[in-house]
C-alpha cells in the first residue's frame, strides 16, 4: 500500500509544482485562486494512481511471461535428456563419418 501512497503523493506534489511554476511564469501571485492548486493536485494524483496500476499490471505480465519461459526451458531440457538417453540406449551413431555424398 505504501507504493500507491508514494505514487499518488509524488504526482500530486508534481502537479502543485507545475501549477506554481505556471503562475510564476505568468507573474501572478503564487496562491492566486488556491482551488486550482487543489484541482491540479487531484488531477495529477489520479494520473499517479493510474500509472501505478499500469505498472502493477506490467509486473504481473512480466512475471507470467517469465514463468512461461522457465517452464518451456525445463521442458526443452527434459526433451533433450530424453533424446540423449534414447540415443545412448540404442547405440545410435550420431557422427557423420560414415556419410559420403
TrEMBL record:
It comes from the Eukaryota. Keywords: Membrane, Transmembrane, Transmembrane helix. The chain crosses the membrane at residues 30-52. PANTHER family: OXIDOREDUCTASE 14 KDA SUBUNIT, PUTATIVE (AFU_ORTHOLOGUE AFUA_1G12110)-RELATED. This is 11289_t:CDS:1. The lineage of its organism: Eukaryota, Fungi, Fungi incertae sedis, Mucoromycota, Glomeromycotina.
Amino acid at each position: 500500500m505504501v507504493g500507491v501512497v508514494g505514487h499518488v503523493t509524488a504526482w500530486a506534489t508534481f502537479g502543485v509544482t507545475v501549477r506554481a511554476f505556471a503562475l510564476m511564469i505568468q507573474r501572478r501571485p503564487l496562491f492566486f485562486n488556491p482551488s486550482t492548486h487543489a484541482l491540479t493536485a487531484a488531477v495529477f494524483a489520479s494520473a499517479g494512481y493510474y500509472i501505478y496500476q499500469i505498472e502493477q499490471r506490467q509486473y504481473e505480465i512480466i512475471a507470467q511471461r517469465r514463468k512461461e519461459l522457465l517452464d518451456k526451458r525445463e521442458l526443452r531440457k527434459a526433451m533433450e535428456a530424453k533424446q540423449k538417453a534414447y540415443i545412448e540406449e540404442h547405440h545410435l551413431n550420431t557422427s557423420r563419418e560414415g556419410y559420403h555424398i
